Structure formats: structure tokens, C-alpha cells
């Protein structure tokens, strides 16, 4: 019987050695933006430009903040990327062409006190929710997901303030933060897109 090491994979007919650490993000930054255009796709492109992430091949991923992941300012994170790079993101995107509607997008993050433990990222897109409400929603959602990994009990119908008190009682969740983008669609019947993203750096 041939035993194949678990870090070897077949790719394109050849064996490829993969270091798992290469696939674990070591840093992230958060960003947001908005754009308007008569074409829906073009408005999305403009929103990505506003967020400074239009020149990367973005790969949507799920909601885990890796252990020991460094949280950077946007400018510092962008310095570690190059155009065309494949970049994993937790991305929220909301679009509308109805005058007066308010698209909103947000990503929240819950960071554990023990940085050897993973945290959570949460994304939400919506129409008609204000920036503060969006911020509260995604931060509490991320904190709730992290709290459940510690076995904390909570009432899913409880108010945000009540749940925040629960988070403050348990010292394993050190902080939450978020990035939020909202806009109001103008009278020109153009598409308006808002994006919010946590950009993970491999």
C-alpha cells in the first residue's frame, strides 16, 4: 500500500506540496465603499474602487477570524497585496435602483481575548436600515456566534443591550468592531451599490 503524505495533493496531473500555514490568513483589514452607475455591474465595480479592492480577484469565504490574525489599518493591509492577487474576503453587498431606497452593507468582527482561539466575522446586507442599527446588528451577531462556542446561554429574542451585557460579563470576548456603508439611491434611476468587507491576507 502506498501512503501519501497529507500535505501532498494532485493538481493538474502533478503532485503539489501544500503548507497548510500558507492557507491560514495572518492578517486582515476592513474596508467599505459605494458607487452609482446606470449599469448594475458598473456600480459594483465603482463601489469596489471606493473600497480600494477593485484590482484583486476576490474569493468569498465564510465567517472565521483565524487565531493570531493581526488586524491592520486599510492602508497597511493594501501594502501587502498586489494587483491580480487572489484574495479571500468576507463581503457584504447591497444594491438598488429605486429612488429613495437605502442600501446598506456591514461586516462585524468579534475578537476573543485568547488570540490562540478563533473569532468570528459576520456580514449583513439590507435595504432601509440605518448605519448605527447595522453596526449594532453585525457586531452582536459576531459576538453571539463566538459566545456560543464558549457555551454561553442567551435569549435569541433579547435586545441588543441585554446581549451586550452578557458579552461584558464573560471576559473571553475582548471586543467587537465593524465596518458599515450606507447610501440613498438618487432620483436618476441609477444603480447604487454599497459594499463592506473584511479582507484576509494570506
Automatic annotation (TrEMBL):
Q: Is the keyword Transferase in the record?
A: no
Its keywords, alphabetically, are: Decarboxylase, Lyase, Pyruvate
In short, the EC number is 4.1.1.19
According to its UniProt entry, the protein's GO biological process terms are: L-arginine catabolic process
* InterPro entries in alphabetical order: Pyr-dep_his/arg-deCO2ase, Pyr-dep_his/arg-deCO2ase_sand, Pyruvoyl-dep_arg_deCO2ase
Keyword Transmembrane in the entry? The reply is: no
Q: Known PANTHER family for this protein?
A: PYRUVOYL-DEPENDENT ARGININE DECARBOXYLASE (PTHR40438)
* Descriptive protein name: arginine decarboxylase
